[in-house]
Design goal:
five-stranded mixed β-sheet; alpha+beta; 11 strands; Heat Shock Protein 90; single chain; Bact_2-comp_sensor_kinase; transmembrane helix; kinase; disordered N terminus; phosphorelay sensor kinase activity; HATPase_C_sf; 3 domains; 9 helices; about 350 residues
């Protein structure tokens, strides 16, 4: 095919020799018509190619959307349904190897802990209420009887008996009463005073009791704390520290407040604890408060249960810490958030 300059610049001539006859076959093509035809075909097929490309991109997007969005949503929906019919451990195990993000697993773990914590609080509360009910057989009869004894002691000029009976009545009224589970530090200290007064009569002044306040204000008195937090600590100091000591001893309270915390330290110079005993107590105090263990020592609530109550109410960073040296003494440090009564 050749293009010749014959005055027909818009024409293309195509020729070929005919085998038989020596003739020359010539065809003439209009360039403009040819280009127009070619453009038309290219445009038609180009649209088809573009359409196929767009369809491919759309299908790819839908597959990606299905894998990363739809599938996790369906897994989440199925998981939520499963929670109502299966245990948490089963649900978390099913999610472990799934493409769903770890956030769902963390949410379920926190929810599980929350449910266990709530259950533990209920069990501890029920155990505490049951313990109170055991000693709540007609409390008014008990109060009235103690008041009669106190009255008779005053008539007989036996002021020690009258004083001890009054302390005993106040102690029972405070512990048996259901007015409030939260009290002020001042109320807790008053209850400790009554308890110590009773024990000093029993132990014939074997120990002395002092309170040291490291606070320039009277603000500490209005700090809120759970009822029956301090008395079990004092009871432990008397029966596991002072009682076994030869001679007299001391029990000291040290009260410190910061901007965010109330710290009460109960120190005694009793017989202390051996290292292995202290390690065993530390293990119990440091274990999760989810492990319900409502134990008693005599008629008092065990220290580890006081610690569990504080951790459940305020968080694991709060609670009880004990330090002790054999034949030297012990210190029990109680740390709770500083919440004032008028701030509630």
């Amino acid at each position: 095919m050749k293009k010749r300059n014959t005055g027909f610049q818009d024409r293309v001539f195509k020729y070929a020799k005919v085998v038989f006859g020596g003739l020359l076959a010539i065809s003439v093509i209009n360039i403009i018509v040819f280009i127009s035809f070619a453009n038309e075909k290219l445009s038609k097929y180009g649209y088809c190619i573009l359409l196929l490309l767009e369809i491919s991109i759309l299908i790819t997007f839908l597959l990606i959307f299905q894998h990363y969005v739809i599938k996790p949503i369906r897994v989440l929906e199925g998981t939520i349904r499963t929670i109502n019919h299966a245990s948490f451990d089963y649900v978390l195990e099913e999610l472990e190897d799934d493409s769903l993000t770890d956030s769902l697993t963390r949410i379920l773990e926190e929810y599980k802990k929350s449910m266990v914590r709530e259950h533990t609080e209920i069990v501890l509360r029920q155990e505490s209420e049951y313990a109170q009910l055991q000693s709540q057989i007609n409390p008014h009869f008990l109060y009235n009887t103690l008041e009669v004894v106190r009255g008779q002691a005053l008539i007989d000029d036996n002021y020690k008996i009258a004083d001890m009976t009054e302390a005993l009545a106040k102690y029972f009224r405070y512990n048996i009463g259901k007015d409030n589970d939260k009290v002020t530090l001042s109320e807790e200290i008053d209850n400790v005073y009554n308890y110590i007064k009773i024990q000093q009569y029993r132990f014939a002044d074997k120990f002395t009791f002092h309170i040291y306040v490291h606070d320039d204000t009277e603000e500490y008195k209005n700090c809120i704390m759970p009822k029956m937090t301090l008395q079990p600590i004092v009871e432990n100091a008397i029966f596991h520290g002072i009682e076994g000591k030869i001679g007299t001893g001391t029990i000291d309270f040290h009260i410190v407040t910061t901007e965010e915390r109330l710290i009460v330290t109960v120190a005694d110079d009793g017989i202390g604890m051996k290292e292995e005993t202290l390690e065993e107590i530390h293990k119990k105090l440091n274990q999760s408060p989810m492990v319900v263990s409502y134990k008693k020592k005599g008629n008092g609530i065990a220290i580890e249960n006081v610690n569990n109550r504080l951790k459940l109410l305020f968080g694991k960073e709060y609670g009880i810490h004990i330090s002790s040296t054999w034949m030297v003494g012990s210190e029990v440090e109680i740390t709770i958030p500083k919440v004032l009564k008028d701030m509630k």
